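Sequence and structure are kept together here, with a separate record for every protein. A complete record is shown below as an example:
=====
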Amino acid sequence: MNYKFQEGGPIGLSENGDVITIDIDKRRKDVHLTDEELKERRKKWTPPPYKAERGVLYKYIKTVQAASKGCVTDE
């Protein structure tokens, strides 16, 4: 499953020391955590603030797709 960091996906829930595998050919980033570990971390997680609250950067943040889909904004 591919989530944005801002949405509290596995990459956003990772911590220092966690093992992450990046597979370029398959366009995947996987965090090696159990479903239970992810569930516990998600309970404590709050989304980080956006780096912009208006303007072009804000529009980009709100519309960009995941890197595995090319970071496009027009679909």
